[in-house]
């Protein structure tokens, strides 16, 4: 292996180095058992939110989500980052360490997204109640813009938080910068996540056993490639 980033080439003994994509696929295959374990741990962190939602307690579920789903997702991204670098992914002990280390960042990012989502829902309600008046439409459009910017920057912020341990504000700022400078790659990431969500929904949730892990692996690989490109251009 030459280099440490996801774009580094891999050379087997007696063979020529493979392409970056083939190298990334090889690291994914080699790290798949650890990634499956990390994915299982993430689903366990999501269990309180899912259970409360099933019990008909949506407000309590939403209150719990930033405290469990957010840090759990940061820990899954950290595991995916190790796999993308060809490092071993240990399951439970490292997961607990990653959750503790990323608790504040994960909670803040999850809470920020939930607030932005519900703000646009409230703005949509105002627009409907007021007959789509100009002021109500402008308010809803502004909330949609904030939500879109949060989604575009948030995917990179999540990768930066999990893979590099950046705090919420720093990760959000750097994620937004990456999204502005690389809109095509950022939209491709969102499309990948949307496709994964659609497949999971279509198959009644069965792909959850691996889809979150695969998506986070792709996310950190793309974001790290963009970060490496920024460093080379600096």
Provide a count of the helices.
9
What global shape is seen?
A: globular
Quaternary structure:
single chain
Helix content: over 70%
Topology overview:
Blueprint: H1 20-30, H2 32-54, H3 58-84, H4 92-101, H5 103-129, H6 134-164, H7 168-181, H8 183-202, H9 211-233
Helix pairs in contact: 2-3, 2-9, 3-4, 3-5, 3-6, 3-9, 4-5, 5-6, 6-7, 6-8, 6-9, 7-8, 8-9
Q: Would you give an account of this structure?
A:
This protein has one domain (20-233). Helix 2 (32-54) runs antiparallel to helix 3 (58-84) and helix 8 packs antiparallel against helix 9 (211-233). The protein has helices at residues 20-30, 32-54, 58-84, 92-101, 103-129, 134-164, 168-181, 183-202, 211-233. The chain starts with 19 loop residues before the first helix and ends with a helix. By secondary structure, the chain is mainly α. The relative contact order is 0.12. The longest helix has 31 residues, at 134-164.
Task: Provide a concise account of the structure shown.
The protein is globular.
Task: Offer a few descriptive terms.
single chain, 234 residues
